[in-house]
Structure formats: structure tokens, C-alpha cells
Amino acid sequence: MLNSFKLLLLVFALLLGGGAAALAVTPTGVVIEDRAGVLDRNTLVPAINAIEFHEPTKVAIYTYNGSAADNLNEEVLRFARAEHPDWISGDGQKWADGLFIFALDPVGRHVGTYMGEDRKVSLDQRDDIQNAAKDLLRDAQWTDGTIAGVRRGAELINQPWYQSAAFVITAWVTGALAAAGAAALLIVRAVTRADSRKELARGDRSYANVSSDLDVTELNAGTIPASSSYGSSVLEKHRTFLTRYNTATGLSNRVHALTPRELSRRPNLKLVRDYADAAAELDALDDVIADSNALLNRLNTWPTAWDRQLAPFRSDLAGLEQLLSKRHGQGDSATAAALRSFRDQSLAEIERWTAQLSDGTLTPEQALDHLRDARNRLSDLLKQHTETVIAGFAKTEREAKLMRKGMEDAQQGTDGRHRRSHEPSILGTVYPSYYFFSVPAFNSGLNTGVGSVSSARGGGGTTGYGSSGGSFSGSGSSSSF
């Protein structure tokens, strides 16, 4: 099997070597009609001139500012008839031979590809060329997106048969299925084993911390005032501490009994991850128990404990500007102004609470109440800003629902992309993880929502040239991004 795998690698090396030799023809000409004014010619022209096609090809790039309702195919044909009749065949029915057109509408958010009959590719390949540019175009990187689209077009137009995806897949399936399966299995096992070891190390660090502080944790819990609403809630969590510690100990024994080979199996990775998560939660909880004792009883370490309670809120406030300045962040809106005002006010309030705690005019219980109320207020402001962001990006009610679901799932921790970590604070222990809407959760939800909407917009290419196209039937299509 190993020899078969080596032979497969040799075959692919020969194929890639032959392909490299075929990619040797730079554009015969480059025409840039940037009517939208969004391209950086100093970057674009050298990059396009350096791209190698399989056959001599003239590249034309056309941009204009349209609208979401426009038919880009119709607009490109109209422009070609009016300004560049050389882009059209002699009979007026096709695009000129040897031509590849890349078109972009940054306002209407459409991208299109068009080519002469001797350069045409399948509809799926046209989608492939457009998709190669879309991630960059969605981020308003118009020049880089154009370069990426033309580069992908150069790879697919008149592609030699031995470089085609169909040939490579067929060769792989029919000639080396066993070797490929073995290689894939080896890779999966190696990655799983590495992940297991990483999770095992994470669990061991947390478990060692909990074990070494076990006696101290019990002493701290014994002096937390049960009369405090926060203290009683933390004590409620502590009542199951030893049971959970014993469970973590059992998991530790099981995962450390696994051999390296067993660590390569996916079910055992889940077991190791369960151990690491259990130990990490205990490690966070014993810190909270210590902080509750220090802060609520005003021991000499209370300032450090108080700083740890402020840390999540400070982090949210510090991340607001980056959130508001990102693309689609609606940083110039009224809700953004409210968030900035709240941030400035809160930073001053934090200093005031700390000073009052220090001079005794504010009790620890009251300070935690103020902090809870402030984080609730931030959550409300973020939810209001969510609606502003959705209104600014979504074009339909369906798109608004997609974005709203992404934001809600991120807050609830149900998006399935990230495991929500336990917040090592008193408020994070007293209240459920989804109680406060954090800036990281907002960012995650925004990225998910925008991605969902962009994917929905990107589906379904258009091949027709509209009512003004007449009998024109040149190879080309456009799609949204």
C-alpha cells in the first residue's frame, strides 16, 4: 500500500509538471474600463499582465455602478456595443474569439464573466471563476477580487485535459483508491492524536491547579457569607464541587490509560475533551470561590478579586470601537453613538465604584449589583445595534431573519461553531452563560449573519442578456455576491 501511495504521488508530480509547462502565455492585451472608479491600476495592470493563460487571450475588465435589480449581462453587452464593438464577433451574435471579459458592479453587487466561443467554459466553471473572487469582493477588495477572478479564469479557460478536475478525480478513484484511503486515514488519525494530546495537556493543567488548591478551596467556601445573594449562589455551585471533582478524577484515570493508538480515534478525542472541559470548569469555579471569599469579606486581596470581576466588562468596552469600525458595523449610526457614550460613561463609573469600595461607602454586594446592571445595559444597547446592522445590510425580510438568527445563536451559544467557555467571575457563575450579550458574541453573530446572507445572494447565476440583447447568445453569465 505504501508503494502504491508513492506511485500515486509520482503520477501527480508528472501531471503537475506538464501543467506548469502549459501555463506559459500572458495576455495578448489588457483593457481596463473602470467606470465605477474602484480599481487600483498600479496594482491591477502588472498583476493581470503576469497571469499565464493556456492560449493567447485578451483580457477586458469592466466595472460600473449599477443596482441590485440590474442585469449585468445586459449592461456589459450594451457597453460593448457602444464603446467596444471589437469585443463582439463579426456577425454580432457572440463575443469575439480570444477574449475574456471580467465585469464587476460594486454597488449592485454583481460579478460576471464572458468569453469568445474559442475560450468558453462550462456554466459550472463560470461559477467557479466568479466564486474565486466573491470573498474578496464581499470585503470590498475590488482590485484583489478582480485579480483572483482573472487568475481562476486563466486556469480554467482551454485547460488541458490532463489538468481537468474530471481527469484527476478519475485517475484518483480508479488508480489509487486504496492508497488514497490509507493516506486519508493516516492523516485523520494523526490530526486526531494531536488534538487529543492538546486537549489532554489542557485538562492536566486545570486538574493539577484544582488538586493543589483543593484544601484552600474548601477553606474559602467555609467562610463565604451565605447571607449574600451572590455568596449563596456561589455556595450552591460549591455543593457539587467535590462530586464534580471526583467525576473529573475518573475521567483523568480513563484518558491517561489510553494508548497513543487509542488517542487517534475520534470517540476517544471526545472523551479527552470532556475531561479537559470538566477540569477547566472546576479550575474556573475554585478561582470564583476564592474571589467571592476575598471580595465579600473584604480580605486584603479584595482589589485583585474585584479586578477579575471587572475584566469581562472592561474587555467588552475595549472591543466596542473595533466592532463599530468594521465593515457593516454601522459605526456612524445613532445606536453606535449610544454605545460609545455608554463606554465612556462606564469607564468613569468603574473608577467611581472602585474608589467607593475602597473607602467603604459601597458594599461588595452593591458593587456587583452595579456591575450586573451595567452589563445588562450593554447587552440592551448591543441588541438595539443589532437591529441597526441588520437594517443596514439586509435587503429583504428573509435576509433580516437570517441575520437575526445568526445574532441570536451567537448570544445563546447555539451556533455550533465555538464551545462557550465558562466565565471565571462571580457574575459568570451566578448567571447563565447567555445572560449577558458580549462583544465577542456580537462579532461572531455578525460574521455568521453576513456570511449566511452573502451565500444566499450568491446562488443562482444569470445567463440571459435581457430585452435589449436581441438574438445575442455569447458565452457568459453573472451572479450576486
* Helicity, as a percent range: 55-70%
What is the approximate shape? elongated
Residue-averaged pLDDT: 88
Count of strand segments:
5
What is the tally of helical segments?
Answer: 16
Low-pLDDT stretches are 16-21, 165-172
If strands are numbered along the chain, what order do they take across the biggest sheet?
1-2-3-4-5
Radius of gyration: 30 Å
Descriptive overview:
By secondary structure, the chain is of the alpha/beta class. Helices cover 64% and strands 6% of the residues. The chain is built from 16 helices and five strands. It has a five-stranded mixed beta sheet, sandwiched between helices. Strand 1, helix 2 and strand 2 form a beta-alpha-beta unit. Helix 2 runs parallel beside helix 5 (142-156), helix 7 packs across helix 10 and helix 10 (266-296) crosses helix 11 (302-325). It is elongated and about 90 Å long. The protein starts with a helix and ends with a strand.
Task: Describe the secondary-structure layout.
Layout: H1 2-22, E1 29-34, H2 41-50, E2 58-63, H3 72-83, E3 99-105, E4 110-115, H4 123-138, H5 142-156, H6 165-212, H7 214-222, H8 229-238, H9 241-256, H10 266-296, H11 302-325, H12 334-359, H13 364-393, H14 397-412, H15 426-430, H16 439-458, E5 475-480
Parallel strand pairs: 1-2, 2-3
Antiparallel strand pairs: 3-4, 4-5
Helix pairs in contact: 1-6, 2-5, 4-5, 6-9, 6-10, 7-10, 8-10, 9-10, 10-11, 11-12, 11-16, 12-13, 13-14, 13-16, 14-16
